[in-house]
Specification:
258 residues, Gyrase A, domain 2, Alpha-Beta Plaits, 3 domains, eight-stranded antiparallel beta sheet, 8 strands
Amino acid sequence: MCSSISSNPVFLCADICIYICFCYHLTRICCQSVDSANVLGASSTTSDEAVPVPLVMIDQDSDRDATIVQLSFGDRLGALLDTMKALKDLGLDVTKGTVATDSAVTQTKFHIMRFGRKVEDPDMLERIRLTIINNILQYHPESSEKLAMGEFFGIKPPEKKVDIDIATHVVVEDDGPKRSMLYIETADRPGLLLEIMKIITDTNVDVESAEIDTEGLVVKDKFHVSYRGAKLNSSLSQVLINCLRYYLRRPETDEDSY
């Protein structure tokens, strides 16, 4: 029967038309399926909302003998063995502390000591901060657009830059009769902690302890400061605020400072 149909020109033409139409519709269905898969894949891997903000906190207040480092990047950080090794390569004693999960955010703490005590050298504290951030960038390249350091060390700089004038806030408040609390919030950049510490010491102000928080593109630092064993008076507080605002709002940083 098939041979009789195929030998008839009318049926042969009809068969060809049906076959062409079938192939055309099949091709459209396949292409639509592939396009849909591509769209879903792109949205799941490149969605800006899906990438959490990396957080790195260096705490000099909580422990009398050790520097506490706490870091998180949503639920994406693993055992952090490479980070611990990188910190040990700086000549530090590193022990892993608690690991806590809160609302799908995993927070990991390290206890860091140098020569049997907490790290006090500003240069080493900045090296600790940059080492941790560099490791996040290396093992989680998607964080590059969420960190200010992504512009210097990452695969892609942040699309949204922080306006230094808008982001910079400096406040000094009394924290008892013997010390004041200095709050600093500004855009992050390499060597920032060294800049801040130099400005503070240049105004003859002593730093007793600090908490250095890096939240994506900005830093939010707190310093317990004093002047000759007492809290800062209003005049010295204003001098310190003006100096910090001036230097932190500069668009570029001298390379010699870090």
